[in-house]
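dumping these here so i dont lose them again. two proteins, back to back, each one seq then structure tokens. dont judge the mess
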Amino acid sequence: MTGLSRRGFNVLLGASAITSLSLPSISASHKAELPESKNARVVIVGGGWSGLSIAKYLKQENSKIDVVLVERRQSFHSLPLSNLWLGGLMSQAQLTYRFEDAAKMGGYTYFNASMTGLDRSKRRIETNKGWIDYDSLVLAPGVEYDYSSFGVKDPSAITELKSKFPAGFVSVDEQLQLKQQLASFKKGVFVLTAPPGIYRCAASPYERACLIAATFKLRNIKGKVLLIDSREEPAVNGEGFLSAFEELYGDTIEYMNSTGIEGVDPVSKTIKTDFDDIKFDGGAIYPRTRAAGMIERFGLSDPESPQKEAKIDPFNYNFIGDESVYIAGDCRPMPFSKSASVANSEGKHIAKVIAARLQGREVKWVTPESVCYSMVNTEPQEAILSRSFYRFDKKSKQWAFDPRSKPYNNRSERLGTETFTWGETHFRELFG
């Protein structure tokens, strides 16, 4: 576990309300068709792990709260555990669920729409299906890719990279394309990148390298998995992953550490690094991530954040200056793992904060918990584990790992079994 304590976070207390807003105008001509409610309404935008968790646990905190989940998709596809699907250890059906089922089980309303505008002065959002008033608003839109971090700014090149060599960490379409690419791969260099900064699922590029290498061995593919990483060692479970690379895939995985990427040409299939130009035949190009564009578009991002993350109270998750707007999930700024387990854990805390504040109360901050299983072998199915907790040093104004944090670097079949159990438990928790 490296890098967390190096990133400080200045806590802003008693910030004044923002009086000047430059936001998209509200232009919806009609009110959204939702059941009327005499109770407080909490609108949650985004049906990822964070939004789903907040919706469920808000109803558990106070069943009278009118909870509306606004989500443009009809089906949820889990990115956590998707590497196991790529490696042939899970089916797509095991990762796919209906938002309607989640809402029915959790007792809240699922509204299939896209958010298009925000007016905080009126406490109103605009959607493509009408406007919705709120007492509290939660924005959990996730992340976007920042290809400029890899020196790629041309829109056509970005489109080419997204379609042919997708990172596979935002949409199900990316996952499907990556699965098809892997199925048709015959030989050559399959390149993976571990992006700079804090990104979605810190262990995933390293786990993916292992599972793709295992697929190569199973299918007798004469190829190499090239993993390019700007870090000196894997972002998490360094000892465990490096051991797997050497002992299980020494002839298949090449780990290029301490290597910066300065450019990517999807046409010539060339990656320009600070050492050399590298040719590749297939791959998943994973650039730095940034908060979803709506955070910046609606005036909620921190101008000092290199990843355009939200400007929030790190203990209560509300936008600085507006306690009716909360920002959660992967677009929040704290250096916690951008993982499903953290989103789920944070969601329970945010639900408590909102429910308490609607009743004029406050709750104490509780550290989120990151539980990250990584499958590193398929025959037998062996995994490693990283478990993390966090603390904030008020004197230094920096985040660090809580002493309870611990990596489990010895791969085992027991941890492999627990990987599937973790997924089954969380899917059942949110979808029934």
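---- next one ----
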Amino acid sequence: MSHIQTQTEWEEEMSAKILNFVRRELYLEFRYMEMALSAFSYKKIDGLLTFATDGRYLYYSTEPVFRLFEKNTPFLDRTYLHVVFHCIFKHLWIRGSRDQRLWDLACDIAVEYTIDSLHAECTKRILSYIRQQTYELLREEGAVSAAMVCRLLKKQKAEQITVLEQEFYTDDHRFWPKEEEMQSPLVTEAKQNWDKTARSVTLEKNRRGDDPKEGEEVLNAQIRAGKSRRSYRDFLQKFAILQEEVHLDLDEFDLGFYTYGLKLYGNLPLIEPLESREVHKIKEFVIVIDTSDSTSGALVTGFLEETFSILKQKHNFFEKCHIRILQCDDKVQMDTKIESRKDLTHLLQEFSFVGGGGTDFRPAFSYIEELRRHGEFKNLGGLLYFTDGKGIYPEKKPDFKTAFLFLEDYDETAIPPWAMRLRLEPEEFES
């Protein structure tokens, strides 16, 4: 007997067709976003008033999909694109310690500003007075990213926050990962997939070579601004090395065979636990803090706290390590040696800002070379230089990885081509 389709099955089938129609309509307007628009699998959840996502699924409820498709298709298109942009801009994974309510609102404003700036026919809407005012403020302040919008929202009164929430609410954020879930394999995989997707959007736009459409500079800025605590954690892994570490390797150890042997022969396991395995962790590298007059001591402390919170996690840090913390303006002012997680904690408790002169990056590099000549480093992973970028760079490329971490926009032409660079948001290091 052939299967008779139920009402529920029919609703799910029709919803999928509507969502695919929406996706195709968006693709005709944004051809460089094919990969991003096709990234979701659909999953029905009863009771949702709008779309939601966790980075893997697009969650929906059939009733709103049917109603909006019949009465307001542009809003359906906008909401779909809105959710996609949240993922491209990394909003789900980069909140850090920011207030949840303000972060949710800031993300919605940043996305809606982007969509409205693009002026696409399929997502067009009349701008309310509140939107016009808000967008004017963003332009005046040069605020593009959600982090920057969040900074502005902190200055607003509670009643104004409520008004903005009512105006910019678009999708449901209930499935965004919680802080304690950020290290789970599924969350990590979703973020990595969207990292690739964001890069593909940029590459496809560049490949097409079309003249930028109105508002695309806002989209480009949002993608560039997708840097955060998460991306900084990933960035630190560039300084990890492969080394054997002695410990019980549970991935290779079969407890069943082990206990069976003990039961059968008394004191003879059938398989011995492996004593070590090769792992990628951070062992030897240098952090240089720009302590010139133009660098804030509070931000330096925040940067160190964030860096050390990452390093102190067991999966990032060898038990035996060698890290040097240099404070430098136009000369090396202080050198602190770190060899354990206990040393990290002690340094933070006792840290004091030393310097205040001009900025010259060269003395730090010379000092590190001197340490290497004296055998202080055997396998230097690299150098992290935390700075505002206004200084004299070395001309010669060192034979170790070097990264400059900037707190504000920097002059690309001034930075040596061999140096890695990462633009940080001050909010990343606020407590």
